[in-house]
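User: Sequence recovery, please. Input:
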């Protein structure tokens, strides 16, 4: 029990503007995924969780509702809330940032942003996002490390603020605000607004690192890499691309392809 108490009482890490319910959701879901809150265990009461996490009972209740919607907990009327006996698979189908996929209790995640620039549209971006030839987009390249080891080189592409403003002014405002933050763009937007993007496609390709990627990931040029190219929609319109080169040390990754009924 002391391990759970210490886990819950760790300070919540939030970015400016991030809703507290998102931070509480992340803390509890991380505890569930990492086995700190085992399957079937009874969760502490709302007021106890609020006291441990340093937030109001209302914030806890909102986070618990999200956890139940995602199948991580269940409610037994008159008894309390329990961790689900079987958890939904955590896969790329949930469209998570690389920081989320790599994180876990006790893990240290660090992001180094190499470039964040506005560029004229390219064939690659036009093909995936359907932008006009005279449009522009934002390009962000980052290295994501876990426990000091470089795990992934992430390239992200989103339309410029003018285009995004028609889809979501809130997302458009995140672009300049993210400029000085050490995080991937997807992670910044998700922390600020919640999961606003929906997954559209994920292409997987095996390749070798080559000199440029090898230099960023501290691997040999001849080492194998897995490259994931993902496209996501914002309000039903393609508005985000990521191309992630994963180093061999990344480990096991489950990918689920599905179509809604």
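Assistant: Recovered sequence (261 residues):
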């Amino acid at each position: 029990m002391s391990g759970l108490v210490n886990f819950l009482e760790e300070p919540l890490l939030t970015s400016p503007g991030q809703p507290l319910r998102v931070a509480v959701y992340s803390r509890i879901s991380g505890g569930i995924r990492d086995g700190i809150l085992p399957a079937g265990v009874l969760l502490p009461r709302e007021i106890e969780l609020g006291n441990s996490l340093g937030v109001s009972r209302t914030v806890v209740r909102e986070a618990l509702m999200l956890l139940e919607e995602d199948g991580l907990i269940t409610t037994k009327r008159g008894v309390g809330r329990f961790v689900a006996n079987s958890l939904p698979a955590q896969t790329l189908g949930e469209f998570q940032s690389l920081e989320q996929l790599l994180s876990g209790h006790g893990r240290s995640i660090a992001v180094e942003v190499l470039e964040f620039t506005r560029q004229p549209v390219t064939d690659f971006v036009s093909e995936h996002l359907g932008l006009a030839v005279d449009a522009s987009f934002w390009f962000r390249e980052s290295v994501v490390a876990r426990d000091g080891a470089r795990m992934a080189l992430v390239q992200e592409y989103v339309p410029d603020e003018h285009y995004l403003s028609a889809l979501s002014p809130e997302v458009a405002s995140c672009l300049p605000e993210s400029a000085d933050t050490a995080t991937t763009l997807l992670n910044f937007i998700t922390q600020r607004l919640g999961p606003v993007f929906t997954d559209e496609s994920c292409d997987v390709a095996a390749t070798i690192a080559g000199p440029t990627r090898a230099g960023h990931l501290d691997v040999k040029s001849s080492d194998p890499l897995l490259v994931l190219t993902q496209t996501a929609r914002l309000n039903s319109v393609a508005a985000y691309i990521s191309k992630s080169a994963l180093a061999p040390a990344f480990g096991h990754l489950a990918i689920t392809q599905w179509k809604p009924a």
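The radius of gyration is 19 Å.
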